[in-house]
Amino acid sequence: MALDALTSDGGIISIRPVQPDDREALARLYGEASPESLRLRFFAAPSSAGLAAEVDRLCAPESDGHVAMLAAEGDELIGLASCGCPDRAGRRAEFAVFVADAHRGRGIGTLLLEHLAARARRHGIEQLIGEVLPGNAAMLRVAHDLSPDAWSRLDAGVVDVGLAVADDETAGPAVDARDRAAERASLRAVLSPTSVAVVGAGHRPGSVGHETLRALREYGFAGRLHAVNRSGATVPGIPACRSVAELPTPVDLLVVAVPAEQVLDVVADGAVAGVAHDPLLGLGGVHTDLLGDRALRLVPMTDLDAGRMWRSLRAAPLLTGYRGSVPVDTAALEDLLLRLGRLAEDLPEVAELDLNPVLAGPDGVVAVDAKLRLTPAGAEPDPMLRALRPADPSREETPS
Q1: What CATH code would you report for 288-374?
Q2: Contacts of 386 (CB under 8 A, 6+ apart)
Q3: CA-to-CA separations, 93 to 50, 67, 117, 168, in angstroms, rounded
Q4: What is the pLDDT of residues 218-245, one digit of tens each?
């Protein structure tokens, strides 16, 4: 099963175990690597036979003695990490990490090693060890960032490194800092876009799309603006096209202001066109307020909180296959709740974020409509916090 992760520049990658049908992509990853990258990984220029043997090793079935994970962005394989267990009694495994040249510096090595450690822990592995050339400073930093108990020593021109396969509670502070930076970077296109396209922005005053586009222009948005409507007719002062696919260049933010049944098609077109973030605005939703079926938790949230939130709803059976219906991906729903909780912690300027509706299905969840309200950090006091009143001197007890 693939898991999505945020890179340090806010990009989204998928991390999953290596499968036998990844053989061609793995060979291409090594084949396109620079000679220096291959030297840092294999300590010498590998032969074609050596690379083929390495690909065979990576594609072997997962076991207590072998774990391999890869990172992909779209259909492109951009990195991998693996470990083998030469010391079955001591529960140690030798690890290696390799990232494509064009994707270095994005925190992908750290993400891969983090997921590799978590998967290795399931197989009883307690420590990852490896050999790194002294010139491979990036790999040395990744290992030390992942575990506060990481160690290293120079021996015969090679740096031996080791790190405990710890649980999430003892992850290094650098990993936590990377997570926070990635979350902020992933929202940069929403909070500070340089280009915006409004889908459904026609000529009729008062319509959602028209007024959104007008507000962006009149309130001083300095980036590129585009209108997208069925006729492709230019909205006064703003160029237009008939579909997202016809946008001349990718945009940072796609504002969707079309009927609910058209939203998923627009989002799909946006993904093909290279839109960074979407959607922000929509015309869909259901009237669940009538039932008052809600759940509330305070941040910081844990995975237990996220699970209890949806299970506490009276309508929860509808999510788990009530009367033969198809169960939805509740793990994806819990992940969304945890991400929202983390967002509330890390970005105090987000005063309100309303996702409505969120479509949940067997293959994941999709936020169709979102409403975001920002305030300067610290401008609004937390209504959930209680303030202690100053002590009343007249009521203080005097010592006898």
Answers
A1: 3.30.470.20
A2: none
A3: 21, 10, 10, 19
A4: 888 888 898 898 888 888 778 888 888 8
Distance CA 249, CA 196 (A): 11
The residues facing 4 across adjacent strands are 14
The whole-angstrom separation of Cα 192 and Cα 213 is: 16
* 370: nearest Cα among 348, 343, 346: 343
pLDDT tens, position by position, 10-57: 788 899 999 999 999 999 999 999 999 999 999 899 999 999 999 999
Output the pLDDT for position 74.
86
CA distance 72 to 13: 6
For domain 3-179, is the CATH number 3.40.50.280?
Answer: no
User: Does the domain at residues 189-273 carry the CATH identifier 3.40.50.720?
Assistant: yes
Name the pairing type of β-strands 195-199 and 253-256.
parallel
Displacement of CA 342 from its chain's centroid (Å): 12
Which pLDDT band, with edges at 50, 70 and 90, does 279 fall under? very low
Contact indicator for 18, 70 with CB cutoff of 8 Å: yes
Closest alpha carbon to 230 in 206, 258, 211: 258
Q: How far apart are CA 82 and CA 97, in angstroms?
A: 7
